[in-house]
Structure formats: C-alpha cells, structure tokens
Amino acid sequence: MRTNYVLIDFENVHVTSLALLGDACFRVHLFLGPNHTRVPSELVLAMHELRERANYVRLRSSGRNALDFHIAYYLGALAAADPGGFFHVISRDAGFDPLIQHLKEKGVFSARSDSIEAMPCFQAQARRAAPGSEDEANGSLAKLVKLVLDDLVKRKAAKPRRVATLRSTVLARMGKDSAGSLDAVLNALVREGYVTVDGGKISYDLPG
Fold first, then answer.
1. How far is 202 from 204, CA to CA, in rounded Å?
2. What is the per-residue burial (b if ≥16 Cβ within 10 Å, else e) of 122-135?
3. What is the pTM of this model?
4. Which of 66, 85, 68, 73 is nearest to 4 (CA)?
5. What is the pLDDT of residues 6-21, one digit of tens each?
6. Exposed, middle or buried: residue 151 (CB in 10 Å: 0-12, 13-18, 19+)?
7. d(CA 175, CA 186)
8. Which of 46, 58, 80, 91 has the most beta carbons within 10 angstroms of its beta carbon?
9. Which sign, positive or negative, has the C-alpha torsion 73, 121, 192, 149?
10. How many C-beta atoms surround the C-beta of residue 166 within 10 A?
C-alpha cells in the first residue's frame, strides 16, 4: 500500500482531530511556529497514539514564510526518500500550489488540501458512499481512460516522454470540461501499468 505523508501547516489550519489518519498507511508531520507554545490536548493525544508515525516539526525562530519553507524542505526530502509515496500538504495557503504542480509534473503524487477531510483519498470515499455515485464515477473515468489510451496508441513514436508533456497532451484530448479528472486519469494509467514514470520520464506498455 502506498504511504501517505500528511504535512500539516498548523499556523494556517488549526487541526484538532487526526481520526481519519489512523490507518497504517499515514505518516503525520505537524509543523508548529515558534509562538505555538500550546497545542490542543486532543491533538497531542492523537499524535501520541500514532507513535512512530507522527512527528513534530517546531520552528526555533520566526520569519516571513518561514514555516512554508520548512514544509517545502521536508516535502522534498520525503519525496526523495520515498518517490512512490503520496504527499499531502494541509494548508489554506494557495502559495503551495505551484510547488504541488511541479511535483506532479515530476511524477510525484501530491496535493494541497484545506483540511484533512478534504484530502483526495477521503473525497473519493465520500463520492463512493453517495448512493448511485460509484458506478457513475467509475463509468465516466473508464470512458476518459479509454479515450486517452486510444489517442496514445495512435501517436505511436510521437507519444509524450515527460510527465509535463503527458499532462498537457491528456488534458487537450479530454477537453477543459474534464480538467478536474486529469489526475484521476493519469493515476489510472499508472495503476493499470499502461504508463510508467521514472524521474519525470515516461515509458509505455499500451494495448494493441
């Protein structure tokens, strides 16, 4: 199972519950500013229950965007140590989005969410829990994957060879109205073995 690293910007999002992160696939890093001398007892106890899967990162001195730079450093270090992991930044700060986009272009699974509940894995669970939504969502995704696969097969030797080019090519084929499904389609291509990502480079094992 893919390890999910959750980096929480406590300056920006005052998380109090880690109940959704109890599974063994989650690793939690809680980033605290130098002025955070008190942390809610519920959160402290929740971190304690996670044992070795939880880590505090506390800044010793303050500075403009200091916590953001620390999160970016840890994100890069963790991604280098486990390229196959999924990296979540919990923050309402959209300044992380260009970094997340860059990581995706490098083939690193990553996302920024406003809260733990808004993480992609939990949003997907919520959609599946809605009556009648799972078959509809799976059917729509399958159609998009087939559309993209057919296009890639037709390209023969002209297929994209880098993640950034693949993303733009897939989006162009799907159309802007389906932009919200781009990551899901790319993840499906990788999961089904049609696409392999190695350091930002792409190789293919396509049908036919």
1. 7
2. eeeeeeeeeeeeee
3. 0.64
4. 85
5. 999 998 888 888 988 9
6. middle
7. 14
8. 91
9. negative
10. 22
Cα–Cα distance for residue pair 130/161, rounded to 1 Å: 38
**Ordered structural domains, the chain, with CATH:** 4-125 (3.40.50), 132-204 (1.10.10)
Q: Write down the mean pLDDT value for the chain.
A: 85
Whole-number Å distance between alpha carbons of 18 and 109: 21
What kind and span of H or E run contains 31?
Answer: strand 26-32
Q: Other C-beta atoms within 10 Å of 160: how many?
A: 17
Q: Tokens 């010793």 — which residue? A: 60
CB neighbour burial string for 33-54, b if at least 16 within 10 angstroms, e if fewer: beebeebeeebeebbeebeebb
Please answer whether residues 200 and 162 qualify as being in contact, where contact means their C-beta atoms are separated by less than 8 angstroms.
Answer: yes
